[in-house]
Input
Amino acid sequence: MIKIKARSGESIHQMMKRFKKMCEKEGLIKDIKRQSYYEKPSEKKRRRQRKSSRQMD
Output
């Protein structure tokens, strides 16, 4: 879970910007987008294989 504490003199906009960056860094946004639609098991397997082959290069 991501928690953000206000720094002294920090505006709400700066806190939101920090929060969004932390969410991106944790990969939450990607997970939410990926889970927002159904993906067939064969497509999941294909995506994982492509990801692993890119990491091997």
